[in-house]
Specification:
By secondary structure, the protein is an alpha/beta fold. It folds into two domains: about 160 residues, Aspartate Aminotransferase, domain 1; about 230 residues, Aspartate Aminotransferase, domain 2. β7, α8 and β8 form a beta-alpha-beta unit. α4 runs parallel beside α5, α11 runs parallel beside α14 and α12 packs antiparallel against α13.
Amino acid sequence: MRFEISRGGSGLTYEIRNIVLIANKLKELGMEIVWENIGDPVQKGEKIPAWMKEVLTEIIRDDLSFAYSPTKGVNETREFLAERLNKRGKVQITSEDIIFFNGLGDAIARAYSSIQVDARMIMPEPTYSTHFMAEVLHASFPPNTYRMNPYNNWFPDMRELEQKVKSHKAIVGILVINPDNPTGFVYPEETLKQIIRIAKENDLFVVFDETYINIVFNGKKTMPLSDIVGDLPAISMKGISKELPWPGARCGWMEIYNFGKDPAFDRFINTILHQKMSEVCSTTLPQLAIPKIMTHPEYTNYLDERRSHYARLSDIAYNILKDVPYLMVNKSNGAFYMTVVMNEAALNSRQKLHIKNKEIREFVENLTKETIEHDKRFVYYLLASTGICVVPLTSFFTPLLGFRMTLLQKDAGEFEQTVRTIAEKITEYINSSK
């Protein structure tokens, strides 16, 4: 080419997907993979119920399901979502306050790219990769974060959050992921209200990623943003990828709260909308399905069954891992992930696991010969020795070492065996350099 055309990378890697490339290479070399890296219930064996498929079959008979929708989304669906919110009586919005996107990844990218370069969002640490990558790419600087404390059941450090918001004037908004990905932490109502208070007192807006708001279990309770937002400018991000579940639909939306009460916030929302207009609209079919599926008489029972299953697997994983030396483990109470923290002092660059296959062993030794994060090194050896594919915790922008796994395996017996294998391999790995 005449000159360099690539903008260049940010140095960030979406490890949830990147590790698939490594796993697939091992698969070519004869390894059977247990996919614990990505939150796709369907890939892990979730059977879409017949009634849900019948709903989609009915919709697809309508030729309009093949057409463009309005830029903000299908009118009837936005009216349905607004009416459901308004019935709760805590916030009043109209269908014009809802914008559909091609998945929340699209919504996240457009939101952060619409913020001025020198304005920053503060986000939890660890945080979901899509959020921190989009925020860092928009600003070209490392993110501002508030820590989630694994030694306090993953509760956020509220003192740190408030101090950073007050001292860093470039911070314009606070991100909350509730329930949290990757930790499975569910925010209590009082903690959420503290965050709203901090935002109000410092003239900020908030973004709540509520992808998993209806996937809460183990008796925990939380509150949606709509119930506590008051008059604060705010955005709730929601979708159907995990809840229905229909990740391949790529269908998510923003609910805008208190548009019209702050000119700067209004301009921000209009910038997002103008970006959305450039692609005309989001996919029509899944939008049409939302009201019919969510009001179906079987829907509540279906969600209840899934929540019960995740609670069971959460108990299994916690009870196996909590007594393993050098681990900090908290029970997951929402979403369908569990994050395990490994003691930094117990890990080094000499540790290994036995790998029978010579080609696989040489492949992983080549991967780990350079200096890499200690948890990533463990994850590669775990994958090569057992086929179990998890995600290193440092991939979620945190100095904490560990890994994230899912609670999606449909066979509880197989899941228990997977977790027991992980526990055994952690001990073997740590002891390998002694």
